[in-house]
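**Sequence with structure:**
===
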Amino acid sequence: MGEYRSFCSFIFVLLLVACTSGEDPYRFYNWNVTYGDIYPLGVKQQGILINGQFPGPQIECVTNDNLIVNVFNSLDEPFLISWNGVQQRRNSWQDGVYGTNCPIPPGQNFTYVLQVKDQIGSYFYFPSLALHKAAGGYGGFKIASRSVIPVPFPPPAGDFTILAGDWYKKNHTDLRAILDGGSDLPFPDGLLINGRGSNGYTFTVDQGKTYRFRISNVGLTTSINFRIQGHKMLLVEVEGTHTLQNIYDSLDVHLGQSYSVLVTADQPAQAYDIVASTRFTSQVLTATSILRYGNSAGSVSSPPPGGPTIQIDWSLEQARSIRRNLTASGPRPNPQGSYHYGMINTTHTIILANSAPIINGKQRYAVNSVSFIPADTPLKLADYFKISGVFGGIPDSPTGGGAYLQTSVMTADFRGYAEVVFENPEDVVQSWHIDGHNFFVVGMDGGQWSAASRLNYNLRDTISRCTVQVYPQSWTAVYMPLDNVGMWNVRSENWVRQYLGQQFYLRVYSPANSWRDEYPIPSNALRCGRAVGHSTRPV
C-alpha cells in the first residue's frame, strides 16, 4: 500500500508540473510483470507476461511525448525492461540495462520516466536480464510523427505490429543453466509471430486498402526473412529513418532490427500466408500467420512462398539498397538530407572484432579479446558516485592477444564523431546494437577492412539506424555522432553471445557537468551493490 501511495504521489507531482509548464504530453502505463502458462509451440511453458499478456502491451506515442511506465515485479527474481532503439536523450538513467540500472527486486516496483525526444518510428521493448527474453516480456513500441510534420506517404488504413523471432520449448531458467555450464544453446525449436506458432494469428484487411506493417526480429539467435504471399512490400521506415521507397518481395530482418513496410491489399479476396523463416541456418524453421481479406472465407489454398536460405550475397545487396529518403522530414520539419553526415571529419576510429573463445573451460564470446562480465554495481552508478574498482577498460581495436574476462567500458568524448568498424572473422552473421545513438551505415563488404575500404563508403544517402548486421568473414562500418552523454550498452543482439560476454559499455563523457548535457540522477533511482548508502539529489 505504501508503494502504491508513493507511486500516486509521484504521478501527481508529474501531472502538476506538466499542467503548469506547458510541457509535451504525458502518457501513463502501469505494468505488472508475472509468470504465466503459455503454449506458443504447443508445449506448456513458464512465460513472462505483462498485465497478463504475451507479447506485452504495445506502447503508442508521438514524438517528444513523456512516458511514465510503472513496472511492478511480481517474479521471483530481479527484473529490468529496456527500450530497443529509444535513445533516452541525455538520460541513460532510464535505459533499463544492468550497466545503468539496479534491477527491480521481486515484489517491488520502479517507475521509468522516458521522453521520446526527436524520434519517430518502429521499435520494441524487452527484458534485459538473466535470459528473461527467452520467456517473453517483450512488446511493440511505435512513435508517430507530430501532426504538423509531413510524412512521405498517405495515412494507411491500418497499422500492424509483427514481433517475430526464434523460440525454445525449454524455460528460460533451463536455457540459462546450459549457458552458465559453459555450453552453447541447441538449435531453436521454432519461430513465433506475435507470441504464436504457425497460423496462430490473423491480420484482416479490406480489399484495395493499404496497411503498414512494423516488423521486428525479437528472437534470440537467428536472422529471419519476412514475406507476404502474393503481395509486394514498399519499405518506408527503418528504426526511425524514412527510407527511399523501394519495393521488395521479401526482407531480411536481423536480430534486434525493425522495419516498416506498406502493403496494399490488391489481390483476389482470399487468405494469404504471412511468412517468417530462418536465414543462414542449415535447418530452416518457418512460421506463418494469415493475411485475410475481410470479404473472404476459407483457408490459404496454396503452400507458403519460399524464401532465401543461406545466400549471403543476396542479403548484402539488399542491405546496400536500403537508403535514406533525403527529401522527407524526420521527427523535425527539416529534410533528413539536410544533415550531411559524409562531410563531417571523424574524430577517431574504433575497430570492434568479435570472437568465440573458451575461457576457463567454458564457452564465452568477446569483443577485442575482452569477454564482458557484470559487476556488482551498475556502471553508471559507479561512475556517478565515483566508486573505484567497478569496471576496467577495453581496447579500441583488436589486440590479437588471448581472451580474458573483464567488466569493460570504453570512454569517448561528447560531440566526437566516431568511425566504428565491426569486423566479423567468424562464419556466422553478427548483429550489433548501440544504445542511445543512431549511426550511418557507410559501408559493408566481405574480407578484412582496411583504410582503402573508405574509398567505397556511401557518404550521401545511407540509412541511419541503431542495429546493423555484419556478414560472415566480413566487415561493416558506421559513422556515429557521439551526441548523447551517458553510459551506453554496445552489444550483440544474439542473446546467447550477449549473455556470454559479447558486449561492453560506451561512456560518452562531458566535463561540463551540466543539465544541458545530461539529466541528473533521478530521485527514485534504485541503489544496489556498492552504491547502497549513496544518496540521490531530488529531481
User: Anything to note?
Assistant: Confidence is low (pLDDT under 50) at residues 1-21. The helical segments are 2-21, 172-180, 312-321, 379-384, 495-499. The two ends are 23 Å apart (CA to CA). The domain at 158-311 is CATH 2.60.40.420 (Immunoglobulin-like).
